[in-house]
Design a protein that fits this description.
Strand content: 25-35%
Order of helices and strands: EEEHHHEEHHEEHEHHHHEEEEEEEEHE
Largest sheet: 9 strands, antiparallel
Shape: globular
Number of strands: 17
Structural class: alpha+beta
Number of helices: 11
Length: 472
């Protein structure tokens, strides 16, 4: 997740007084609006809990009213502070930090705590309606969905909730995995658009984990629905013979065999991103990037109109970073960027081991750069867990006291309709899968770019350290 404070605003307080509000953005979208005193209170709480040694620098208090230049300086300092806390594995995952952001998000959007219903989409288009509180965090909502579907507790950790945007053509754009610092109901409501949905999908890369999920009826139905949906969208490559086999298995109701065959197909388990731009193999190339099988796959259109395909293995990426900058929208003015006149330009750059002694930077310019970075991180997480002999299986923690009563009725996952015949005109590139939860990466370096507002988002790759000559 990319944290920034691109702007401040003067707001009216009690008794007609005014104060400076700092607008915290996550992935370029306003998350919450806070005062300096609130962030100072958070800093003091975290320092008391974890000690002064682990705390990043916090801008000092001022006795007199700040000048515009001092407000701007404080904005920059607070932005660096929030980024540093979020990227620290201990502080960024702390309940103190995340609960502060959840409360601030709810207060900013002025949504009171009350019981509501929330629709969660499944891969086959079915919608599951859950009863939640507006103040329920992501983990609470995921648990409510699992309860409604009768998904066992020990399988909940294999799934995640994702914010997606559905295009007019039915295509899905993955915006992000819903995080522990946000309230799903508030997040989706604040977007004020029917294009956005919350989607339940599996949250791992290694298809070996499919076996665990398929042991359960509900888990099997969820994976089956997802596989059917991805094939129908053309995200998994299927030839005519394979399509005939799949349709035969579907008609027989052989769901496990259907998924097993799907696992052998190209791009099973990949996320497909929207078309974007790369500087590889040369600047200005249009590319469709896909993430899966511990790699980033490129379908590149060269200036000569020639199409090329290639892959970058995550184990050969020494490090990567996400940068963002405010790009003025052409409006004939010379005013500084504001939320109404600027758009955020995001880039993902990774240093890749092209050959035994040659490292090269590859850059992708895409609104989904942060999502790509999270995919890379989750692949590394999964590889390191596997290397240590562990498992991604996790149990959801018990809900806090005061949880609302859930309906005892269970909602079955419906089987999707039979596959349609392959459409030869449909672009068939990749399957849309998912990712494991994001874990903060270790910092390597700071940015030297004046336009980079995420200078500390420079991430080293633990999985790279184990690479040997045989891997090249």
């Amino acid at each position: 997740m990319h944290f920034s404070i691109p702007e401040t605003e003067v707001r009216s307080g009690e008794n007609g007084s005014t104060y400076v509000a700092y607008n915290i953005h996550v992935n370029g979208v306003l998350h919450c609006r806070v005062r300096y005193s609130q962030l100072l209170g958070l800093h003091e709480q975290i320092k008391k809990e974890y000690g002064n040694n682990v705390m990043p620098a916090f801008p000092p208090k001022k006795i007199f009213t700040l000048t515009p230049a001092e407000v701007e300086q404080r904005r920059e300092q607070l932005e660096k502070y929030m980024q540093a806390v979020r990227q620290d594995p201990l502080l960024g995952a702390s309940e103190l930090f995340n609960s502060f952001l959840r409360k601030a998000q709810q207060e900013t959007q002025q949504i009171p705590t009350e019981e509501v219903t929330l629709e969660i989409c499944l891969s086959n288009g079915q919608k599951v309606t859950v009863n939640i509180l507006t103040s329920d965090q992501t983990e609470d909502v995921l648990e409510a969905v699992a309860s409604k579907l009768d998904l066992p507790d020990d399988l909940v950790g294999y799934f995640s909730l994702f914010l997606v945007r559905e295009g007019a053509d039915g295509g899905l754009t993955f915006v992000r995995k819903l995080q522990e610092f946000e309230l799903p109901y508030v997040s989706i409501t604040s977007l004020r658009s029917s294009e956005f949905h919350i989607l339940l999908r599996k949250s791992y890369w290694d298809t070996a984990y499919d076996s665990d999920v398929m042991e359960n009826r509900v888990g099997l139905n969820l994976l089956y629905a997802q596989t059917v949906s991805d094939i129908e969208r053309g995200w998994i490559l299927v030839n005519k013979d394979q399509h005939r086999q799949l349709k035969s298995l579907q008609e027989k109701g052989s769901k496990k065999e259907f998924i097993r065959l799907g696992q052998t197909l190209k791009y099973f388990g990949y996320i497909k991103f929207d078309p974007c731009v790369t500087d590889f193999p040369e600047k200005g190339c249009h590319v469709i990037v896909s993430a899966g099988n511990n790699e980033l796959n490129f379908h590149v259109k060269l200036p000569s109109e020639q199409m090329k395909e290639g892959s970058f293995k995550v184990t050969r990426m020494r490090c990567w970073r996400v940068t963002s900058s405010q790009v003025p929208v052409a409006n004939g003015t010379a005013n500084p960027c504001s939320s109404a006149k600027c758009e955020v330009k995001l880039e993902l750059a990774f240093e890749y081991l092209m050959s035994k002694d040659r490292l090269q930077w590859v850059t992708i310019t895409s609104p989904q750069a942060i999502m790509m970075s999270i995919c890379l991180q989750s692949m590394v997480d999964e590889l390191m867990v596997k290397k240590s002999g562990g498992s991604i299986k996790k149990m959801l923690r018990k809900r806090h006291n005061g949880s609302i009563h859930r309906s005892d009725s269970q909602q079955a996952v419906k089987s999707p309709p039979l596959l349609d015949s392959p459409d030869p005109n449909r672009e068939q590139i990749v399957k849309l899968s998912t990712k494991l939860s994001s874990v903060s990466l270790r910092g390597i370096s700071a940015s030297n770019s004046a336009n980079d507002i995420s200078g500390n988002d420079f991430h080293g790759n633990y999985a790279f350290e184990g690479i040997g000559d045989d891997d090249l």
